[in-house]
Queue: 3 jobs
Job 1
Amino acid sequence: MKVLVIGAGSIGSRHAEILKNSVETAVVEPRDDLRHKFETSSGLKTFSSVAEARNWLPDGVIVAVPTDKHEAVIRELACFHGPLMIEKPLAATRTSVSNIMKIVQNRPTPTFVMANMRCHIGPRMLKENIGKIGKVFSAYSNFGSYLPDMRLGIDYRSIYASSREKGGGVLLDCIHEFDYLNWILGASTLRVAALSRISDLKIDVEDHATVVLSHVSGAISTVELDYLQRVKLRGCRLSGHEGTLIWQSLGKKPENIKITLLKSGSQIPDVLFEGGYDLNTAYESYLAEYLKVIGGKSSSVLLSADEAAKESNLLFDILDANCVRAGTQKLQENKT
């Protein structure tokens, strides 16, 4: 089995390093410096373009270029017929989402979007144990990390997350929170949202977002995201008729995780998991599901392109409300 990874940046390199342990792997990277550096460090075969990789005949292709480049790369992949995996989010604009969906709907094999948090021990154990708390009434999900620390040694102002044009901003960047809530509680619609740029970071996107959703299960969820936490924080609380499930994650490499179940009538929580966790485990599990599909099997875990398009368009609905522009203008006025 052969898998081609498009892009040798941080995420593309991660995917390739994981995949090379189980399948034949190659990487496309147009930048000479990045390509040579990756080839030297990984020992993997590399190509300078999609066209150059055509005769390598991969069984699957992973698109791991910056979000605003997704559409252009996917157009180039018409000659590859194996299952396609696209890094999250699907696209940087609503128009690009529509264009990508027109392309992938004409492909002979399925297209998926990277949603590795579905395989993370936190959301996975919440989903596995949700039956223990009865009907779920509400959920609170949070993610926070300090933007300048996202890529060590790289100026945060140059990365995609800092730029609206490149598909950045904490809302689109942290689409995982919306996806795993939909995975656990069912599809959602928007109730209310507030986006702000409240820090002094040199960015043209929101660094804080609060979103309230209604799910088809009847649950209401609140999602809070930010680029402001000096220590990475992540977690989710599910409140049900018969108890509460809580997942808390602190730090990274490793994450310090605690998952507890509080049953109605008991003051002592059941600890379902406590300890360190390597995020690579979630990536490995998700990519293993993708390899199963390439091999002709099915997967109930992978995020389909159709589902990803709906999730992206929900977030574009929020952005189209001009919350960011209004919040940014107010911030600038307050500083003058």
Note: The chain has eleven helices and 15 strands.
Job 2
Amino acid sequence: MTTIRLERRIAAAPAAVYDLVTRPARWHEWHPSSIRADAQAMESLAAGARFEEDIRSSGFTRHLRWTVREAEPPQRWCAEAVMDDGSTVHLRYELMADGDGTRFVRTLDYRLALPLLRWLNDVLMWRRVRRESNRALDNLVARFP
């Protein structure tokens, strides 16, 4: 299992940030790895909602089938995904009021099922995924000037 936990301060109220980040069909607007998500994921998704997403990360294009596991506006949102090869992703957003803004914590846990991908991840891919994740959060911060 690989874990990437990143934190940023965003100059917007937690409710505004939550409303954007829990709409997976809009992830491509700020996350460089997200290609597209199902149109019904344009709404802020509640626990139990399902959607699919295509991503391109570390040079690989993947299809993810997501289930939202937890939705507590505007504090927390968690979802899990499975890929065709059995690889899994767990994504958690935590939002806390911070003065007139939000402290946003994004935790990405993933486990690659194929031995070759696990080896590539250990050697190289996790660094690229971390860079992509950092760029995503920088883009998110820029959306709330």
Note: The mean pLDDT is 96.
Job 3
Amino acid sequence: MKILIHYLLVIFLLQSSLLAHQNHAVVLQYHRFDEDRYPSTSISMELFTQQMQYLADNNYTVWPFSKTVKYLLEKKELPDKTVSITIDDGYRSVYTKAYPLLKKYKFPFTVFVNSAPVVHESVHYLTWDEMREMGKYGAEYANHTYSHQFLVRDGIKDPKNYKKHITKEIEMCEAKIEKELGAKVCKNPKILAYPFGEYDLKLMNLVKSLGYIGVAQNSGPISSESNFMALTRFPMSGGFGEMDQFRLKINTLPLPIKNVLLKDTLVNESNNPPSLTLTLKKPLKNLQCFTADGKKIAIQWLNNTTVTVQAQYSLEYPRNHYTCTAHAQGNAWYWYSHLWIVLE
């Protein structure tokens, strides 16, 4: 009898351990706070406060983005309900609006800095002293290039100088933030957020050769099986972070994908609308796909786990994406998003 009880206890503890850990996380992306002049990239402090309160009230584990990425790279288990908070560009409202609230909740956060406006002391951006102060209370910093240019499009226009130009943009930023912010800069691993969230195969390969993890802006959770040159995040600005959407998105699971046939993102006249073929690890008959404006996309099942997705109309400049979701369990949904860069 004692042996049986011991055996059941071991099974229970093992099951509890499995339930309490996961290999995926949700990453939130912000830009501006309470800057109504920029509705597509700003979130109200009222809504941001509700979001942070929800994370605190519902026992979410908020980790620095670099720590989350490192665990996933090393295929370590994450705590249940892991979330990371990222903020792009480094506008002043990060310090004046978001920082006091994040400090109050003791939530770590990651700021992707494009360093040129800081160097030139733009009043619209953070100062090095403000960033150093925030670094004492949970902030870490990562590369967003020096001058926040359209890297993919610039490379197409000037292929001869592509590698030199992109490398300079990345290395100038890295050198400056390391000099000013030291140990608060993400180094293990080094992380780069693509300006405007735009990347293609050529850029991903260059960024990888420079030793960086690449971060995108199209939506979806990340896992140990994600493409670490295009890690996805959920944008929270422009109406995408209302509380009903927020609650849904922070509980998403990575769509169980075995293979993506087309990994590039470029769309021109010859392939617009683009076609995307996904092979799933298991059948998901409730799969649905949508374009960025919420229009449903027709899908064609090639077999019970392989599906081709293609919009019914040409995608418009400058970018779009296909998002595919399926009900998982309870209130959770599987989620995957593929970026498309529409060329002129």
Note: The mean pLDDT is 93.
